Amino acid sequence: MEEKKVISIEDRIPKLKEARKKKANRRLIYYLTMFTILISLIIYLQSPLSDVKTIEVDGNKYVDKETILTIAHVEEKMNIWEVSKKKVTKRLKENALIDEATIERKLPNTIKISVKENPVVGFVQIDGGYSSVLPNGTLVPQKEQQIDLAEAPVLKKFEDDDMLSRMADELALLSPNIVQLISEVIWTPSDENRFKIVLYMNDGLIVDTSIRSFAEKMEDYPTIVAQIEPGEKGIIHMGVGTYFESVK
User: Fold this and answer.
1) What is the Cα–Cα distance from 235 to 224, expressed in whole angstroms?
2) Which helix (H) or strand (E) is 169 found in, with range?
3) Exposed e or buried b for every residue in 95-121, given b needs 16+ CB within 10 A?
4) 52 contacts 80 by C-beta, under 8 angstroms
């Protein structure tokens, strides 16, 4: 019969003591680590290390960085944890040009503001300056933005707010590459057609059309131009039918 091996309690005690010692050491290291992290965090929060040193702004095209920072009330040397994401986002979205805004803390001392702007579909001249026209017809004064007249057509004689809003809505539906071809849009209402407009194109041609179904009709512009002799000037009439009238 095989003899069973018996391990005495005395033999087990050193191993138990060693295991308990390792466990106690691990627990001590854990508490010391947590204490160090806590102390470091307190020092960081109470020291200039947590002051904002860099402010990044991206996604902006029409609203310059200085204007965004003024609206957001975010500036260097303020504590990074005093920047309220909710409040800053709300303030930024009160600007008509800004559709969405997000705020991000990038430790240790950087704030990043990202914005998504509403598109500008045109410009109108008011009091010697230009205001941007948004897709809903809202006008944004020049002092609140950076303006490049090459990016959208200038809208003239749109004294009627409803007509301006309708025109803006149509321009928003138009392909950007077609919008870039338009230099000016002039509202020329008549007794027969109060939606009548005349377009001056960057290629030298003139388009006589209507605000109604404007975007749909203008999508055919490149195809129509391709059928006109290069260098020939004239008016493209886009009404019930479409035809070209040469002008000498």
Assistant:
1) 11
2) helix 161-173
3) bbbbeebebeeeeebebebebebbbbb
4) yes
CB-based contacts of 58: which residues, under 8 Å, 6+ apart? 112, 113, 114, 115
In order of 45, 80, 184, 245, the CA distances from 157 in angstroms are: 58, 49, 11, 24
Give the three-class secondary structure for 73. coil
Residue-wise pLDDT for 69-102, tens only, equals: 999 999 988 889 889 999 999 999 999 999 999 9
Residues in a beta bridge with 207: 199, 236
pLDDT in tens, 167-178: 999 999 999 999
Say whether pTM exceeds 0.90. no
**Rounded to whole angstroms, how far apart are CA atoms 95 and 63?**
9
Which SS3 state, helix, strand or coil, does residue 207 take?
Answer: strand
* DSSP letter assigned to residue 128: T
Angle, nearest 10°, between helix axes 65-72 and 85-93?
120
Distances (CA, A) of 108 to 69, 88, 141, 195, 199: 20, 19, 37, 57, 54
Structure tokens belonging to residue 75: 């500036």
Tokens of 145: 């933005």
Q: Give me the phi and psi of 222, to 5 degrees please.
A: -60, -40
3-class secondary-structure state, position 67: helix
